[in-house]
Amino acid sequence: MKTYHVLLSLLFIFCLHCKEAQEQSLETEQGSISAEKYLEPQKEDQFLGGIKMIPIKTPKGEFKVWTKRVGNNPTIKVLLLHGGPGMTHEIYECFDGYFPQENIEYYYYDQLGSYYSDQPKDLSLWDLDRFVEEVEQVRIALGLNKDNFYLYGQSWGGILGMEYALKYQEHLKGLIISNMVASIPEYQKYSDEVLAPKMKPEVLKEIMQFEENEDYENERYLELIVNNYYTEHVIRMPVADWPEPLNRGFKHLNPDVYVTMQGPSEFGIKGDATLKNWDVTTELHKITVPTLTIGATHDTMDPEHMKWISTEVQNGRFLLCPNGSHLSQFDDQKVFFKGLIRFIKDVDSGAF
């Protein structure tokens, strides 16, 4: 009888061990969160699939912005700021192929004016300071704080991320500045003096003729830009091979937001674009939170400048995507996600 009870005890312990091992199947460097827990639906998810429309107060009234949560990790929550301005969260759908298996909770988010959010027509809303306040309202609504909040911003989203950190970094656990320099004049200089001379002279001449005539909507102009500039410095793939989420994002881009802030040119920031003179190079030293800057060899942005940013902030790291361009989450995926995930986990575990 005593032997029987011993066997039962051993069997119970063995089964308990198996259950614990199964729950820890998605073990990560900083600890473990079970697959069941990570994918555990919240009550509203069972009806809305993680989507939350967040009310945003602005000087021109209240509007709603679209967000969608994926995963459940109390110490890692990444809010994704898309580029454009006026682009959409869709260009980050490839994150689904990397973040879930690493137990990283993340939020898709369409900024005000972008396709899945409200799109008011008042151009005065497309203002950098207002967008910073919008991000802060989104943070509060999602319950993000210094113990879990990672802010990822790419391109225009990188501008927004830097400005947010300069005002609200006490709420951040980590900051990622992806494919964005800290100065629009420096970006324009790099475009004019480094990237432009790399183009075929006859192609550059024709593009600049359209630029001088401000004929930005000419189909020939767009054809030249896409096939000679985008495929070299925005996404290094033939146009026919561009990922469907990217094509969908371009289709959904809001030109009112884009032109107001970025300007009508696809070859830099020109005209009376509101971001034309933006520059925070002298303020970067104020950023104290762990910061990752991501650059790419073939980017529209100078990778050396992005490396420099990592040395100007107080706790920086630089990731270079050697085969990537402006959208290196697509054209240099393995390097991009390996470095991004490592940074998030290093910060979370205290190893940064």
The run of helices and strands is HEEHHEEEEHEHEHHHHHEHEHH
Largest sheet report: 8 strands, mixed
Q: What percent of residues are in strands?
A: 15-25%
Provide the gyration radius in Å: 23 Å
For the record, the CATH class is Alpha Beta
By CATH's scheme, which homologous superfamily applies? Alpha/Beta hydrolase fold, catalytic domain
Helix/sheet category:
alpha/beta
Helix content: 40-55%
Q: Shape, please?
A: globular
Structure description:
There is one protein chain. By secondary structure, the chain is α/β, with parallel strands linked by helices. The protein has a single domain (45-352), classed as Rossmann fold (3-Layer(aba) Sandwich), CATH 3.40.50.1820. It has 13 helices and 10 strands. It has helices at 2-23, 35-38, 45-48, 128-142, 156-168, 184-195, 201-212, 219-233, 244-252, 255-262, 303-312, 328-331, 333-349, and strands at 27-28, 31-32, 51-58, 61-70, 77-81, 105-110, 149-154, 174-178, 291-296, 316-321. The protein is globular, with a radius of gyration of 23 Å. 39% of the residues are buried. Keywords: Hydrolase.
